[in-house]
Amino acid sequence: MDKKGTVYLVGSGPGGLSLMTKRAREVLDLADVILYDQLPGDEILASLPAHAEKVDVGKYGDHHTREQDEIEQLMVSYAEQGRSVVRLKGGDPFLFGRGGEELETLRAHNISVEVVPGVTSAIAVPASVGIPVTHRKFASQVTILTGNEDPTKEESAIDWDWLAKSRGTIVILMGVKNLRKIAKFLVDHGMNAATPVAVIERGLRPDQRETIGTLETIAERAQERKVRPPAVIVIGGVVSLYTGEHVIPW
Ligand code: SAH
């Protein structure tokens, strides 16, 4: 049987070509097949090489589980045809990208995998507006979590009670939909309602926008301004360092 191809699990960084790694560029340029979704953003998607077969595997419905299986099967079957496959993901492939599950599936099929780390939005997007996720004065720990989970649901995989009592910065990805519930829950469970919050939409892209408030006000402000995903939510004292200026990291 012919040799199997390698699968590259590649992080694109938060949006622009300048924050993509050299290795990511190399493997993209050599790929036979690129499986992508919309998160890497227009600039990066427009730069994908013409010669590669490009497959949009974005999840636009509510059938995430079935579609995730299909994506993994696609990666396996392309690699088994001996083709070199890139699975391109926004930010870093192992932070909420389901990259870990893809790695397991590929290993189970004896397919060789290279992971190409990326600059994660969880840190780079706050940084772009001068918010460091840690700072000796404000936070010596940072918790990064998915806001996909409703804090009022009993079976949540996140320990929301612990979070409300924890010190340090909280960074929430995929949290726009549940922002109101999350902010209320944290205050009801002991966090100071005056804790500053930043919601940064489309970070490091041309149409980046920030909405700033406190745990008490942020849900209202975000609603008024019609905040939409993708956005990074930052909660904690470090948000007081936000000045409105963009600190472009290149
Ligand atoms: N692996 C990615 C995260 C995937 S989860 C990473 O490391 O960045 C998808 C979520 O990431 C989005 O819902 C949003 O919360 C966040 N996100 C990714 N890129 C972003 C960007 N450029 N601006 C704002 N949020 C972003």
Provide a descriptive summary of the structure in words:
The protein is 28% helix and 20% strand. It has 250 residues and is an alpha/beta fold. The longest helix has 17 residues, at 64-80. The radius of gyration is 19 Å and the shape is globular. Bound molecules: S-adenosyl-L-homocysteine. S-adenosyl-L-homocysteine (SAH) is lined by residues 14-15, 39, 89-92, 95-97, 120-122, 125, 173-174, 200, 202-205, 229-232.
Characteristic terms for this protein:
250 residues; 5-stranded mixed sheet; Cobalt-precorrin-4 Transmethylase, domain 1; alpha/beta; single chain; Methyltransferase, Cobalt-precorrin-4 Transmethylase, Domain 2
How is the topology of this model organized?
Elements: E1 7-11, H1 22-30, E2 33-36, H2 42-46, E3 53-56, H3 64-80, E4 85-89, H4 99-108, E5 113-116, H5 121-127, E6 142-146, H6 160-165, E7 169-173, H7 179-188, E8 196-201, E9 209-214, H8 218-224, E10 231-235
Bound molecules: S-adenosyl-L-homocysteine (SAH).
Subunit structure: Homodimer.
Domain Tetrapyrrole methylase: 6-218
GO molecular function: uroporphyrin-III C-methyltransferase activity
